[in-house]
Amino acid sequence: MVAPVVVVIGVIIGYPLVRGMYLSTTNADEANVERTIGVNHIPATYESVGLDNYTAILEDGVFWDRLSWTLIWTVSCVALSFAIGLTLANMLNRKLAGRSLYRTALILPWAVPAFVSVFTWRLLFNEKNGLFNQLLAGGGIDAIPWLNDPTWAKISVIAVNVWLGVPFMLVAMLGGLQSIPSELYEAAEMDGASPWQRFRNITLPGLRSVSSTVVLLSSIWTFNMFPVIFLLTRGGPGDSTEILVTYAYRLSFVVSPRDFASSAAWGVLILALLSVFAIVYRRALRKQGEVW
Amino acid sequence: MTGMTTQSTAPTGTRRPRARGERSPLASFGLHATLLIASVVAVFPPLWLLITSFKPKTEAFDTGLVKDFTFRNYQHVLTETEFPSWLANSLLVVGLTTVIGVFISATTGYAVSRFRFPGMRPLMWLLLITQMFPVAVLIVPLYNLLASLGLLNQPVGLVVTYLTIAVPFCAWMMKGYFDTVPVEIDEAGRVDGLNPFGVFWRLIIPLAKPGLAVTGFYSFITGWAEVAYASAFMTGEENLTLAGGLQTFVNQYTSDWGSLTASAVIVAVPAALIFGFAQRHLVSGLAAGATKG
Fold first, then answer.
1. Fewer beta carbons below 10 Å: N end or C end of chain B?
2. For position A242, which CATH number holds?
């Protein structure tokens, strides 16, 4: 029963992965891969170039530019959505009129498919006619080039991604909060702990295992977040909002001629970065006595 | 009732799930105000999408509420565009992904949960690490692979692709679920003469129904909302799936916000409904997989 499963997983994941790594050491591009034009079948003619692609990428400034923006993007998105999610979860985790109504409203961004939401935001951000700029104009403020100015575009994509990410954090945190026994709070209260002390010494440690999981997952998801950037700004203006993943995609599917080898090399580098991150993160957790 | 607390300043019990204490009116106001603002921020964009979809095409950017209520946009996308075929493509791809994905991940999850075999830990890690796979590392090899198999522009190609995304994570979640089903049940079944597959099929699967629902939901969402692969692998207007097709309404050359908003609403409503049913299990499934790992 195990064998077929391992085989299936191996085929659908292992094979493309190995092949991707192989491609990254070749000079494959649009002009020399195996392809069929009409009835003519043209065999592949690319050849191995060793690690040339990697040295070229690492020596080029573009990679480091994209990497630093990707890090800013990931850290700010995860930190903001975590903070907002935690705050809202704490507010909801008590007796409150309209609690389930608030909860439903707050997780709505998660229920709507992300690409649909991104289109909605584009409608709102539209520079000439979008709602935001029309409201600003009503208040006598000049239009803001939400998606057409490098800095504003960065702020906008982060805002949209935080909007998308908060509900997941909120629900996860709410689940975590509900698993903290209320006796702990009662005891602390008897001992005269202030709300802040109770939050610091009971809530935060109680949320440790949930938050370490969601932070890890959401860092990885954000690092690889393709649709938000691709659909909102296409990486633009210029390549100012291009993160590593969208840039690798651009290399193989947007620019011409398509450069499959470099794109694969970017992919492998991204994977390596994430693996290092996950290992370091896991070590750090283990040192603090977490189970995994 | 509040006599237990001796604090004089702060309102008591604000951090507790079941407060004995009362909030001060001011704290209560602040709480509701914050939650209300957050809710408005959360609800507004989807709501605006809905409102815009009922406006005539030419007034898509109108800041007011609907002045001339119309179903014209819906009528247009459903009868005069390729939208119905995108919808059909998406349904086909997503349906197959969900069924196959649930089957593979349930069997994998069960195997990893119950059997000890060499290479199990690496397999577990592989399952988790695939979550980190950037689109970029798989998209090129998959593209070349599908091209050489003649599966580009075919729904089947996209199904295979989505399985590579959905299966690892789902298997991880299913393992968490199966871990919560006591091994004694398996043993009892075997004593009663079931073979391992019978145990799995007749005892474990019925017990793991919530887990299967979550897995199915995740596979569904993966296919329904995926953009990168769908944009790269499917070309030609009638072959697109929803995520690719909607992009054609608004691009460098045209901006038909009326059609876009109407079709977006049609796409979002079923997803939101299914989400509503599955969301409670979603996080518990996730947490189970993560902590029991």
1. N
2. 1.10.3720.10
